[in-house]
């Protein structure tokens, strides 16, 4: 499971948790239904946003039955062998298509970097074959939905060429452009499926900025690991200071919020989850990545960009910033970073352990479980929580009564997100 949007269970009301899990399970089951059991490994948190956007704009009935956006799914180990109402239909299938094609791109990227056993030619050949199969499968489903996945595949193909030419001084936005193009196409097509063509332009803008954020945050999270392994990283390769990276991320969050104001959802109630994920959780994803979660700051574009702004760009809890400035400053009383748990497992051994964790439900319900590759503690999918969960965090100061637009219409309290 991967993705930058990981809502804290304590920030979501019960209804929003149910909605979020419905789309997550719907994405997983759409991957299985259209592309086979193995394709479920492409399930990711960000892909479900596509499903959420389609449903938020559509005027179709939400109850179960003919033409509904929900169905009852059978027991699943990741839900503790419980049944659940899950998303279905064109939104879930588009989310599955996008997730599959982008997962194939991620697999090719690992092959190109020679990560783990993928450095061995036979394993790399198998991985490339799986990626090609996923590309073809995604193209078939995309064609059924009127979505041309060639836009995604072309963007992925251009990425390698852009990275090969990048060096110190290359603007980061030149490197993120292919990702921006791919996510803009996916977000924009949700308006087509929902029958709201006027929403296409603002959703493409939101998708473009979402893709920029995903690319930059992934680069920052991987900075230290890439430095240790010698893998290519856009932030390190361009020599961009993390203060500038943070500024680009904050600007992207603000741009997504502005774009959402122009989107005509079917109703305010139907748009709540989309608003929560794209207006509130993106901001928290940036804070989490840069190690500033829980620090006081303003909402929207009013965030500071220095010591007075409340974000503290040069400080964080990991060592990623060491290459671009002074060592990270730990807050008083903070526990030392836990030692690594030994050698990293190879691809096959890690996959075998991951399969065991997945099939026994530990990846979902155990908190924490140990990462099958590097041994680090991870939170279960259903137990995901923010770094410093004291209720609703910064949004709790904005609107205590509705859990970030979860239960009522009071979220017009100046949080600069256009709820």
Summarize the structure.
By secondary structure, the protein is mainly α.
Characteristics:
mainly alpha; two-stranded antiparallel ribbon; single chain; about 425 residues
Give the helices and strands, then pairings.
Blueprint: H1 14-35, H2 48-57, E1 70-76, E2 82-87, H3 90-113, H4 121-144, H5 150-165, H6 172-193, H7 200-221, H8 223-229, H9 234-238, H10 242-261, H11 272-289, H12 347-359, H13 362-365, E3 369-370, E4 377-378, H14 393-398
Antiparallel strand pairs: 1-2, 3-4
Helix pairs in contact: 1-2, 1-3, 2-3, 2-6, 2-11, 3-4, 5-6, 6-7, 7-10, 7-11, 10-11
Describe this structure as you would to a colleague.
Strands 1-2 form a two-stranded antiparallel ribbon. Strands 3-4 form a two-stranded antiparallel ribbon. With 419 residues, the protein is mainly α. Helix content is 51%, strand content 4%. A hairpin with a 6-residue loop joins strand 3 (369-370) and strand 4 (377-378).
Please write the string of helix (H) and strand (E) elements: HHEEHHHHHHHHHHHEEH
Gross morphology: globular
Number of strands: 4
Please give the share of residues in helix: 40-55%
Strand adjacency order, main sheet: 1-2
Secondary structural class: mainly alpha
Number of helical regions = 14
**Biggest sheet, open or closed, and with what strands and sense?**
2 strands, antiparallel
């Amino acid at each position: 499971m991967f993705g930058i949007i990981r809502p804290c269970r304590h920030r979501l009301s019960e209804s929003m948790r149910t909605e979020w899990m419905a789309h997550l399970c719907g994405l997983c089951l759409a991957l299985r239904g259209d592309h086979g059991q193995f394709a479920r490994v492409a399930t990711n948190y960000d892909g479900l946003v596509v499903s959420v956007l389609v449903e938020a704009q559509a005027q179709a009935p939400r109850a179960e039955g003919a033409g509904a956006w929900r169905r009852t799914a059978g027991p699943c180990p990741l839900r503790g062998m419980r049944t659940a109402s899950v998303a279905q239909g064109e939104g879930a299938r588009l989310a599955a298509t996008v997730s599959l094609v982008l997962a194939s791109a991620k697999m090719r990227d690992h092959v190109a970097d020679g990560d783990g056993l993928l450095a061995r030619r036979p394993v790399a050949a198998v991985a490339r074959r799986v990626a090609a199969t996923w590309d073809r499968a995604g193209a078939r489903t995309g064609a059924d939905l009127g979505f041309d996945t060639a836009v995604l595949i072309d963007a992925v193909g251009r990425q390698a060429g852009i990275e090969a030419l990048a060096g110190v001084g290359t603007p980061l936005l030149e490197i993120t452009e292919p990702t921006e193009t791919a996510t803009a196409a996916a977000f924009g097509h949700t308006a087509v499926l929902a029958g709201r063509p006027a929403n296409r332009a603002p959703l493409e803008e939101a998708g473009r900025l979402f893709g920029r954020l995903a690319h930059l945050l992934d680069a920052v999270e991987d900075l230290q690991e890439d430095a240790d392994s010698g893998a290519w990283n856009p932030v390190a390769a361009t020599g961009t200071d993390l203060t500038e990276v943070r500024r680009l991320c904050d600007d992207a969050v603000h741009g997504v919020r502005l774009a959402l104001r122009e989107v005509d959802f079917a109703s305010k109630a139907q748009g709540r989850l989309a608003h929560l994920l794209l207006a509130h959780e993106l901001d928290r994803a940036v804070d989490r990545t840069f190690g500033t979660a829980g620090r006081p700051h303003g909402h929207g574009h009013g965030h500071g960009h220095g010591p007075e702004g409340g974000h503290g760009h040069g400080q964080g809890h990991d060592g990623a910033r060491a290459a671009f400035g002074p060592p990270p400053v730990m807050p008083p009383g903070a526990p030392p970073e836990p030692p690594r748990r030994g050698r990293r497992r190879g691809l096959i051994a890690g996959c075998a352990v991951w399969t065991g964790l997945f099939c026994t439900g530990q990846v979902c319900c155990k908190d924490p479980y140990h990462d099958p590759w590097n041994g680090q503690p991870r939170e279960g999918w259903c137990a995901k929580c923010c770094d410093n969960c004291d209720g609703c965090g910064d949004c709790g100061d904005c609107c205590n009564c509705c859990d970030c637009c979860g239960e009522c219409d009071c979220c017009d309290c100046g949080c600069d997100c256009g709820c």
